[in-house]
Amino acid sequence: MEVSIFVGDIADAEAEAVCTSTNPRLSLVMGTGASVRGRGGFEILRACEEIVKAGPATPGSAHATTAGSLPYRIAIHCVASDLAHRSSEELIRQCVRNALACADRAGCVSVAMPVFGSGHAHVRFDRAIAAMAEALHDCATSVRQVILVVRDSERAEEARAIVERILGAQVPVSRSEEEAEPSVLFW
Questions:
Q1: Ramachandran region of residue 85, left (φ > 0), alpha (ψ -120 to 50) or beta?
Q2: 2-175 has which CATH code?
Q3: Quick one: angle between helices 31-40 and 42-51, nearest 10?
Q4: How far is it, in rounded angstroms, from Cα 22 to Cα 164?
Q5: Most-buried pick from 54, 57, 149, 166 (CB within 10 A)?
Q6: Is residue 159 classed exposed, middle or buried when 0-12, 13-18 and 19+ CB atoms within 10 A define those classes?
């Protein structure tokens, strides 16, 4: 599996599937969820509302929906925190495994993923990246390319160093043409 890092808005990453990092209500009101909903349309939010009609989604689970007007085959909503907005490295690993399983079922060979749990759920960025790299290393999947998306360049270099150390391979970094301004909100 090829792993790369993309710096910018997750809705600009080139892949067949895009992931959001969300809560058990699949509310898509902040971070990557807000970006995907804002750029892809409310059709995505309506699909998420259908999923949680029976109750909140399980932390660590992943749910595929339409990508609305975005150029992706599917949007995968990964529940990276519990109802109290807490996450853990194990939840992050589950999100990666379950997102890859969703991509496999949809026949996608490339997936863009945020750094799960490192935003509102407050898992330290380096620990979140390490958990994701471990899950990618250990997962059996048909996905051939995973793009880890970060919002700013400073985090991209930190992410690259951690992923390269764990996977033992060089990790390319690309940037959107309109790279986002540095922010305190990391995906």
A1: left
A2: 3.40.220.10
A3: 120
A4: 26
A5: 149
A6: buried
User: Residue 28 has what pLDDT?
Assistant: 92
Q: d(Cα 11, Cα 136) in Å, to the nearest integer?
A: 21
Specify the pairing of strand 17-22 against strand 173-175. unpaired
* Cα 39 to Cα 5, 45, 72, distances in angstroms: 21, 11, 12
What is the DSSP secondary structure assignment for residue 156, as one 8-state letter? H
Amino acid at 159: A
- Cα–Cα–Cα angle for 133, 27, 122, nearest 5°? 45
Mean predicted confidence (pLDDT) in 154-166: 88
For 30-76, write each residue's pLDDT tens digit. Answer: 899 999 999 999 999 999 999 999 999 999 999 999 999 999 999 99
Using CA atoms, how far apart are residues 6 and 9, in angstroms rounded to an integer? 9
DSSP string spanning 60-118?
T-EEEE--TTSSSSEEEEEE-S-TTS---HHHHHHHHHHHHHHHHHHT-SEEEEE-TTS
The pTM of the full predicted model, rounded to 2 decimals, is 0.91
Could you state, in order of their start, the residue ranges of all structural domains in the chain?
2-175
